[in-house]
# Entry
Amino acid sequence: MRDGRLQVLLWQRALAPFAAAFALPGGYLLSGETLEDSIRRHLAEKVDVRELSHIEQLVTTGDPVRHPDEWQVATAYLGLIPSDLDPELPGDTGWYPVDQLPETAFDHGAIILAGRERLRAKLSYANIGFALAPRSFSISQLRDLYAAALGHEVSATNLQRVLLRRELLEPTGERRASGPSGGRPAALFRFRSHSLEITDQFAVLRPPV
Amino acid sequence: MRDGRLQVLLWQRALAPFAAAFALPGGYLLSGETLEDSIRRHLAEKVDVRELSHIEQLVTTGDPVRHPDEWQVATAYLGLIPSDLDPELPGDTGWYPVDQLPETAFDHGAIILAGRERLRAKLSYANIGFALAPRSFSISQLRDLYAAALGHEVSATNLQRVLLRRELLEPTGERRASGPSGGRPAALFRFRSHSLEITDQFAVLRPPV
DNA sequence: CAGGTTTTCTACTTATAGTCGATAACCTAG
DNA sequence: CTAGGTTATCGACTATAAGTAGAAAACCTG
# Structure
C-alpha cells in the first residue's frame, strides 16, 4: 500500500526482449539455491529485504511461450512490505498501481493479478493484514487499507468487530492525537500475530449491496 | 476416495535412492514441455489420464536437501479421480490411505499432506466435490465422502441445505432403488458444474462440537 | 461555549450454519 | 396384508456471524 493504493514494485527493462517494458524483480536460480533464498537474493538488489513482512509462493509457470527466445520455468512469489516503510529504490525501479499497470514484460501482468487475488482472499480468511499495516494503527486507517486492497467500500464498525472477534487485533491502549480539523482521537490497535494464521471464517467484508 | 477412505496413488521404487519406499508418480520435464503436459505424460504410464476430474498446481520445492544426490526443483500437482472410476493399475502402483501412509520417498509425505489440506479447504469454499463424487449420487453418499475427506462427521441435512443454497447441486429427478435392507429410496443429485468454482462462503461443515 | 469533525458504541436486521425430532417411503418376515 | 425395521427427507428451532444505521463520545477551532 502506497499513496492509498495497492502498488507493485516494477523494474524497467533496458534490453530486449520486452525492452522498456516493466518487469517484476527476479532472476536465475543458482545451483543448490533454495527458491526463497534466490528470490531474496535477487530482490536485495532492489530493496532492503529485511523490510519484507511476508512472502509466499504464488505460482510456477513452464509455458514455453512465456519467453520469446528461451525455454524457461519460473516460480513467482508474493512479497509484502508494510505501508509505513518506504524503501530507497534504485533509479530503474518504482511503485506502480496494480489497477493501472504499465505495459508489462513476459507474463508478469497475469502474475501480478494472481498475486492481488491471493492477497484479497487472505484478507478474508487470514490475518494477512499484518503484512500491509503499520505496527500500530487506527481502525479508520485499517479500513482504508482494506478498502484499497479489496477494491470496494468497507465498514469500519464491521471490520473492527470481525477482526476483534477473530482475535486478530488487540488494542495497544494508546490513542492517536486528533488531526488539525479535530475529531475524536482514535484508539490504536495492532495485529496479535505477525505470522500468517488462517481463520475458520471467510466472509469478511463483502462489497455492500 | 476408495473404499470409503481418502487414498493416494503411490509407486514403489525399485532403485536407490529410497529403494522400496513409496513415491508419487512423476518424472523429469522435457525441453519445451508445459508443466501440466509433463505431469499428464508421466501419469499416463500409471493410469488413464482421461479419468482425471481435476488437476491443479500445488507447490514447487527447490530445497537442495530433498534429493540426496542431485539438486532438483520439483513442482507437485494435485490430481483427483472420481470415486466411481477404478483405473487399471500396473503392478508396482496402488492406492494407499492418506491417513496411514507407508514410508515415502523424498519429501513426498509432506506433499501428500499439503494436497489433503488443499482439498479440505476447497471442499469448504468451492465446488470441488464434483471431482471426487460420481456423476450422480445420493446425499448420504455425498455425506460419507465429505466426512472421509474432511476427517470428521458431517450432517446430511446441513450438507444438502448448504450445497443447494450455494446452487452447487441440482436434483437429477431420479431416485436410487432402496437397498436390500429396505429404507426410503434416495433422491439423486449431481453437481451443476464440473469445473472449479469458488463460492463466497467458507464455513461448510466444521466439526460438530 | 457553539458548531464542526472524526471515532466509537449500541441496537437491530439479515444471512448462514448446526441440531434434533418427526415424517415419508421403502423393505422383509410372518 | 400388515407390523416393525431401515434409510432418507423435511421442518422447526437455535446459534453464530456479518451488515447497517443512527446516536453518543471526544476532540478541534473560532
Remarks:
- The two ends of chain A are 26 Å apart (CA to CA).
- Residues 141 and 208 of chain A are 19 Å apart (CA to CA).
- The beta strands of chain A are 7-12, 22-23, 54-61, 74-80, 93-97, 137-138, 169-175, 187-191.
- DSSP finds four helices and eight strands in chain A.
